[in-house]
Amino acid sequence: MKFTAVVFIVFLIGAIIFPNSIRSTVVEGSGEEVINVTCSATELSSCLPAMTSGDAPSTQCCTKLKEQESCLCSYIKNPLYSSYVSSPNARKTLEACTVPYPTC
Asked: Which terminal residue of the chain has fewer beta carbons within 10 Å of its beta carbon, N or C?
């Protein structure tokens, strides 16, 4: 439990010091629906227990993952977050939330 707490604190400190706030525009389907998402790694803090321990993700985690889905590639490419988002437990979390792992 202590390890998870330390990882969570490091993640939050990193997210505060190096905020990854970018605008992402996603065009869904053949319609003209455009969704603007502000990518913020702190939005995924509810997923950290599942991504670090392999526990089942919470409903809030799945909701946030779906909201931040267009941001996952930027998190994977960022050395600060890539180890969390690319881990086997993160892949399990994405799968449990029915969010496809991105191909960047």
From this structure: N
